[in-house]
Each structure stands twice: as structure tokens, then as C-alpha cells.
Write a sequence for this structure.
């Protein structure tokens, strides 16, 4: 069967939701979204994955026998030498977890599992914002900050598969504690949780009246959309805070630009989707201020294009490419 005719399933697996797509080439035949609940334990979690995949296959009108492969993107540290997920901060029971083998057994087709940011950037480089680029860095700004690298046209995975953790680039020795156990990582300073925490302090001081009106004092309600609406409604100090956070992202981008000389930096994730018009120019300006000018001169900074579908499309294309490798 020609590569473009192979039907594959792509899975975006998160701590609270799963998105499954059935793809033929770049054509999306069906998508199904479901909630996942890690507190239900491993059995529940895998049952949700299995049910969502079979619903997506049914929605696309395909029989399971027509499926060629399944590719998944999952948050956490993976080891490509053993094809296992070593750990995933938001899915506590995932420890040395053989998800690829379990998917393979369930669907009786080859399966791959890769880091979600890697698959998101691969999707953007194959079909989206970085199409045609050979040297790309991606920063995905959400609750945390994911990262990925494509060098010489290939996903750069390092010796074990853990490369590209750009959210854990060290930014400030006096910075707050980070989920990874270190201190002062980019994510601990500029991820959505860090932004929400400082926005709450700002609101308590009376500096973000629109945000206070919409979300009150409950920092859990300071999602990307609420922050964006408050900025659009005129919370100037909040907008300045978002810009300062974006400038820190720009410093990490400058380190990557100087080290790797990419042609393109992609900025994506939920925070970018909500506040991209504020974040992208501030991050780019900071990158250009801190990087070596001769290197920065040929770097373009672009917003991600594929939104929710980046990881699904990337993971589907990734497993398709592995089959033909
Ligand atoms: Zn960290």
C-alpha cells in the first residue's frame, strides 16, 4: 500500500483529556475527544484510551483491519531505547510504563509513543507553521512549557529520547521551585501557573480589576482565556506582566538561537493561542535583544498553526514515517 493511503490513528494523551484522530495522509477522517481521569488508576486510564480509539475508528467508517499503525504523544520523559514512558508529572501511575506495547497488543498494529511536545513540533514542521523548515525549535506555552527541536530536518531526540526540554532551560538562580525538582527553570517563571500566581498577587493589590471581576480571587480560574479577556478589557498591568513573562521566554529562545542556529522558532500552546498577540512580539523582541545579531538576523518567529490537532497529526505522521523507515 502506498504511504499516503495508509490509515493511521494519532493520539494526543494528556492528564485530563485525550484527543484521537483517524488520518489518511494529511486528511482527517474523524476525531474524538474524551476526558481522562488519572485518579481512576491505570486500568481506567487505558480503558478510556481504548474506548476513544474504537469510537474514532467507528466514526471514520473504517474497520479495525484497515488500520496500519497508531502513534501517540504523551507528556513526560520517554526512553526510546526501551520504548517506555519513564515518568509523567501529571499522570502519577505512569512509571516505566510500556504504553506502546499495550497499544500494539490492543490494536494489533505497530505503535509508537513519543513526547507530546516533540509530536506537536513534528506536526507543525510537516503540515503547519514550520512546513519546509529543516532547523526548528518549538516552545509550547501551557500550564508548563514544553519544547522540541528539529535539526537537519529530523526530530532531535538525544541519546535516550529526552532532548528538547526547553521549558527547563535555567533562567534565574533565585527563581521559584520547578516541577522537575530544580529551581529557576523557564517553566517555573513563565508557564501559565507562574503567570496565574503573579496575576493573583496583582489582582489582590488592585492592579488587575477586570481579572478580579471575572475570576475573583481563585487562582484556579485564571485560565489562559480569562487572562486574555482581562488583558483585552484593559488590565494594563496584567498585560505588562504577560510581556515580562514573554521576555523570559525570549531569553531562552536566544540561548537556543545562539546554540543551534535555527531558521524558525515556533511558539504554540494554550497560552499562545489566547495571548499570542501580546506574547509573540515581546518574546521575539527579547530574543533579538539577547541573541547574537548575526545569528538572530535569519531567524523567523511564528505562531503555531495546527492548534489542538498538532500532536495528533504529528504522532500520526511520525508512526507512518517509522513504518517506512
Ligand atoms: Zn524545571
Amino acid at each position: 500500500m502506498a504511504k499516503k493511503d495508509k490509515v493511521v490513528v494519532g493520539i494526543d494523551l494528556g492528564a485530563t483529556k485525550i484527543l484521537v484522530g483517524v488520518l489518511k495522509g494529511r486528511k482527517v477522517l474523524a476525531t474524538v475527544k474524551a476526558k481522562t481521569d488519572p485518579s481512576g488508576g491505570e486500568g481506567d486510564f487505558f480503558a478510556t484510551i481504548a474506548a476513544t480509539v474504537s469510537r474514532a475508528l467507528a466514526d471514520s467508517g473504517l474497520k479495525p483491519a484497515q488500520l496500519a499503525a497508531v502513534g501517540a504523544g504523551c507528556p513526560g520523559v520517554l526512553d526510546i531505547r526501551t520504548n517506555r514512558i519513564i515518568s509523567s508529572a501529571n499522570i502519577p501511575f505512569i512509571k516505566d510504563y510500556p504504553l506502546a506495547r499495550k497499544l500494539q497488543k490492543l490494536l494489533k498494529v505497530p505503535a509508537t509513543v513519543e513526547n507530546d511536545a516533540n509530536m506537536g513540533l513534528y506536526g507543525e514542521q510537516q503540515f503547519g507553521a514550520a512546513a519546509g523548515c529543516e532547523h526548528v525549535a518549538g516552545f509550547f506555552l501551557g500550564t508548563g512549557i514544553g519544547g522540541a527541536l528539529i535539526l537537519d530536518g529530523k526530530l532531535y531526540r538525544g541519546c535516550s529520547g529526552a532532548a528538547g526540554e526547553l521549558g527547563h532551560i535555567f533562567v534565574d538562580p533565585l527563581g521559584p521551585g520547578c516541577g522537575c525538582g530544580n529551581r529557576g527553570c523557564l517553566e517555573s517563571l513563565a508557564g501559565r501557573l507562574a503567570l496565574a500566581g503573579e496575576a493573583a498577587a496583582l489582582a489582590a493589590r488592585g492592579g488587575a480589576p477586570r481579572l478580579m471581576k471575572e475570576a475573583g480571587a481563585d487562582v484556579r480560574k485564571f485560565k489562559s482565556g480569562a487572562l486574555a479577556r482581562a488583558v483585552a478589557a484593559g488590565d494594563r498591568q496584567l498585560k505588562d506582566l504577560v510581556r515580562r513573562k514573554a521576555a523570559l521566554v525570549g531569553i531562552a529562545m536566544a540561548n537556543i538561537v545562539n546554540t543551534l542556529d535555527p531558521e524558525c522558532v515556533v511558539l504554540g500552546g494554550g497560552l499562545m493561542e489566547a495571548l499570542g498577540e501580546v506574547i509573540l512580539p515581546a518574546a521575539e523582541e527579547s530574543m533579538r535583544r539577547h541573541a547574537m545579531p548575526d545569528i538572530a538576523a535569519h531567524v523567523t518567529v511564528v505562531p503555531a498553526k495546527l492548534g489542538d490537532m498538532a500532536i495528533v497529526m504529528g504522532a500520526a505522521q511520525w508512526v507512518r514515517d517509522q513504518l517506512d523507515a
User: Anything to note?
Assistant: The chain has a mean pLDDT of 92. The chain has eleven helices and 13 strands. The domain at 3-121+309-324 is CATH 3.30.420.40 (Nucleotidyltransferase; domain 5). The chain has two domains: 3-121+309-324, 133-304.
